[in-house]
Every structure is written in C-alpha cells, then in structure tokens.
Fold each of these.
Amino acid sequence: MEKDALAEHLGIKLLKVKPGYAKATVKVTKELLNGAGVTHGGAIFSLADVVFAAASNSHGPLALALDVTIHFVKTTREGATLTAIAAEDNLTKKTGLYRMEVKDDNDTLIAIAEGLVYRID
C-alpha cells in the first residue's frame, strides 16, 4: 500500500490492516468537493477502494478487483473526516468478498460498498 500514489495524493491515511480487515481515513478538503459543494463521489469511492485493496491483499497473494458496487447514502462537506473500514465476508483460494463502510465524524453512514477480488498465485 506504500506504493498507492492516488491514496497519497488524496490524503488517505491507512490506520490499520490485519488479515481480512482494513481501516483508513481522509479529511475532506476543497479539492475533494464536486461542483455542488459536497464531497465528490470519486473521493468517497477512492477511500473505500483503498481499504478494500488493503484488506483483500492482507493475506499475501496479489488480489485485484473484479467488481465493486457502491451506494452513496448521505453527503458530507469540506472539513469532515471520513473513515472507511473493509471487512472480509468470504475468502476462497481464488476470490474474496468484502464489505466496505464509509462514515463521517459522527459515525453516520455515508456510503456502503461491496467488492469482489480475484487472487493471483
């Protein structure tokens, strides 16, 4: 994850990684806002994707996303701190299924996502 240039560019900080789990945070700056003045969906997705990547690669073999679905349920604005967690729902030799949640400073659900990875030997 140290090589994730986009995460670094966006200011995403990986806080915790253990097998099948990851947690990260990002402070919403004006650069992460969309034209409507709320946090850009791409920034929220990127935060969820970082924890997805960290959790799915925590077992060792390279894991690459096959599919990710996200649902945005609440908006946030500049100054908010978003925290995302990824938790493993299912693990096989070749695939892994993960659930990601993004919450704000008040522990309010902002987005929920699900991702499927393929593990490369």
Amino acid sequence: MAKATTPVDLTITPRDVRFGRGTTLGRYWLNDDPIATAFYNALSVTFPKGEAYFCESVKAFREGTSPKLHAEIQAFVKQEVIHSREHVAFNRHVVDQGYDVSLLERHVDEALALTKGRHPIGNLAATMALEHFTAMLAHELIANPRHLAGGEAQAKGLWQWHAAEEIEHKGVAYDTWLHATRDWTRFRRWKVKSLVMLITTWKFFQGRRKGMLELLRQDGMTGPKVWAKLAWYAFGRPGMARKVSGVWFSYFLPGFHPWMHDDRALIALAESEYEDALLPGARKLVAA
C-alpha cells in the first residue's frame, strides 16, 4: 500500500465568516444540556491563545519548506487567526451568560508558560499532537450529527465551520514536522512524537475535565453524580472520547500520516450545514 501523504490536489481555503454577532445564545445552547454545553464552552476558551501557539510553533520551521508546504502554512495561519477571532466572540457569549472563565484562562496560561524556553521542535511536536486531536474531534463532530443535535444555529454553525477547516489543514503541522526532522532517524522521530502525544493526551483530558467541572460548579452542579454524567457523555452517549479512540491509536503506527484517513467529503457536508447560520454578507465571503 502506498504511503499516505497530503493529497496533491488539496486546497486550504481560509473562510472569513462570522457567527453570532447581534444574537444572544441561551445559557445551555446545546439541546438545553448543561453537560454538552460545558464541553464546548470549556474547549472554546482554550482556542484563542492555543491557536496562536499553534501558529508560532509551525511558523518557526517554515524556512526551507517546499513551495506547496510554505503556502499551506500561510493558509493554516490565516485559518487559525480567523478561528481565534470567532472563538473570542463565542467566549463573549459564554461570559454574557454569567460564567466566570478566569480560572479556565489561567489554566491555559499556565500550560503555555511551561513551553517557554522549550526547544521549538518540542512545541511543534505538541502542536502536531493537538492538531491530531482537533482533526479527530472535527471528523466525529461532522460525521455524527448527534453531537450538535438541538444546538442553536449560530453556535452549531460555528463549530461545524471550525471542524471543516480543522480537517482541511490537518496535515500541515505533521508535514512541517517531517520537514523539521528530516535528518532524524525514523525511530527517533517516532519515539519523540509518541512520547509527546501521550503527555499531550493526559494534559488534554485533564484540562477539559477541569474546565467542564468549573463551569458546571458555577451552575450548582457538583459531586459524584456529575462526574458520572461527564464520563457517560465522553464514553457512553454521544461518546466522543470512545469514538475517536481508534484514530488516536493510529497515531502510533509506523508510517502514520493524518491523511491516511481521507475525510475531505465531510468538509462539503459541513459547509452545507452551516451556511444557514452565516451572518448576512458572510455567504459572499465564503463563496469568493
């Protein structure tokens, strides 16, 4: 079987769209479910600073890349910048509903502080691992309508749009890593990326758990019953964590590449779904 690579006909297209301006989201905007809403709210809080970190990590190694990869890095950065802008707006809705997100933001700052002084290749490896996470979540989010079923249109549209673009650029950090480590042995490359993925996975789950529990605490929901509901949401129904586990494991396979799972068909599906949620004028931008 041929080794998987980024499709030669792939085009990464920054879509300058806006969601939620001039509207008000409900406190439990996702199917009136505080658990599901807390998951996406907590995740969104991490995006503005997290995606800035992704951009800097990838840009640090763009020199000497092929013209194709250089252009993809530029498009990746543009997409991430727009994602950050839209999640800043979304997070404003979260705060407007009475949530104090300062603790969640502090956790993000503490995590990013740990990267200061680290060799840039470590930051790239962490970005590559987290981009694999976002691609897994994005695939499942679009492929299984149950995740966003009952969500308010503007919020649902935001997450579908973000997911589509995460799929589209899912190979950029990995291809940049292959370029940056081109002089490494295959074993060294596998060892470092695998170790970083294990650490990143632990921190990702711990971070999302803490964020969700904090938002639910502000809703007056605490204790073992809430913990059980969180576990069921993650591993039972809709079971995002359970459903992405196979793709997560594939990261450790020899010869892995994000595009060994070619799911570009989901991008068009998402676009057809979120189009109705676009603000006036945004349709022209996305169609341009």
